[in-house]
Design goal:
Layout: E1 2-9, E2 12-17, E3 22-27, E4 40-41, E5 48-51, H1 61-66, H2 70-87, H3 95-110, H4 120-126, H5 128-145, H6 152-166, H7 170-191, H8 200-217, H9 227-233, H10 235-252, H11 259-279
Length: 282
Amino acid sequence: MYRVIKALNNNGLLVLDMETSREVIFLGNGVGFGKKPGMRLASLDGAAAYQAEPRNTGDTALQAVNGLAPVFLEAAGRIIDEAARRFGNVNRNILLALADHIALAVERAKDKKEFSNPFSQDIQALFPEEFETARQGRQIIEQLCGQTLSEDETGFITLHIHAALSGEKVEESMKLARLVTESISMIETGLDIRLPVHSLGYSRLVSHIRYMLMRNLRNERVTLDMEDYARQNFPEDYALAQEIIQKLEQQLKNPFSKEETGFLAIHIKRASQLAEDETKPR
């Protein structure tokens, strides 16, 4: 049984689930039409349900939706639906956080004060399928809100979609992307090369660094020890891997297992060789 808190518009409804005492947003054609606060509803067939979890701790769902135009909730709902079609089950609890982000992004775009996203390329490499869904999300936002967002915004939306799939917080995913970007930059500077962003070598290296970081956060170890082999055969790459690992340890405040240095050195060597192959004249 649900008790109506507020009809957002004809297609949106905020209710209280009387069994769980949790606030829920329903989105669907006509779901809010004719609904009044206090009404009891046994079911809301055909509408998609989203747990109403405000971004700001301490806010109620009613406070959150009162500060948002319903069109932003609808846009966020459609993006989540698109993610669900591509990936299957997604956490729909990101609705309010994503809608709030969309509202701010649209406002910044109108004022021509959009944020740049220096991590967009690495976010694309880290989460390629989520990135493609985010591109579709930008089209949804343009259709519903009448505002075209910059390509940089695709990266930010990607992080919200990834959060719905992984359970990671957007801030954690952004930190991960930043550390990957910094690591790639150190590799390019240290070897005086430019890794082609859309190359296989770049994607593999980004993927390795991502999983290396995740292992550190989870206190997991790799089972393959290539430490001696990498140090003896690729001393320059090994030294660079050591430098990167040391910097990451300072930022994460958690040591890496010794095997990670050799493993990273081998990936650095492989990526640099692929970069050289791709830049050779044919």
